[in-house]
Structure formats: structure tokens, C-alpha cells
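Hello, quick one for you while I still have it in my head. A protein chain has come my way and I'm curious about its shape. Can you walk me through what the C-alpha cells say about the fold? No rush at all, and the record is pasted right below.
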Amino acid sequence: MSVLTLKKPSFHSPSGMWRGGALFTAALCLLLVGSGCGPATYDELEPGDHVSLLFPPEGCEVVKSCGGLVRMNCQVEVDGPSFYVERLTGRIVASCGTACFGVEPRAEEGRCACPPKAWTCQ
């Protein structure tokens, strides 16, 4: 009489697939798909709004990072704004630009008070 032994399959079952990084990856994909729903141009942005740093508005680019913030240049060289954005959330914490000349900075609103205190880099 012989004894039959079964080996555990070496592949992962679908129920175990959602453990670890796969669930995070799925959530990130959903977040990125929804990121196209925000403002289409930088003219519509203001502090408190959220932007996608992977797909910034037309005319904008991420130019520098410092701690938990990034600086996004939206054609500052031709009178566009510069935004300071939280890296993890995409929330705009401050905006600056030539429109701030002669304007009283309003740090509590994130307007014309740049760079924000959280920006500790040169």
C-alpha cells in the first residue's frame, strides 16, 4: 500500500494577492486615475486645491523638493505662479508669483508668503 502526499502549490492564491503591496498599488492606481478631475490650468489653482505631481497642470513642472514639500513652477519666468505643494497629498500650501508684488502677504491663506515655513532648503 502506498501513501499519497500532496504538495502545497507554489503559486499565490487570489485571496492572498491583496496582502502587502498589491492593495497599495491598486489604491494608487485609483488615485492617479481620479487625478485628471482637478483644474486643467494653473490659472484656476489656489492654496488648498489639490494637484497631481505626476501629471501637473499644463505649463507646470515640479522643479525642486524639500522635506515633505515640492515647488512647482508654472511659467514663473513669464509672470506665472509658483506653488509649494505637499508631496504626499498634492495639496497646495502656498502660491507666489509676480501678482504678489506690492501685495500684503497672507500666510494664513497661503498667498504671497513664500516660501512657506516648512520649506527649510536653500
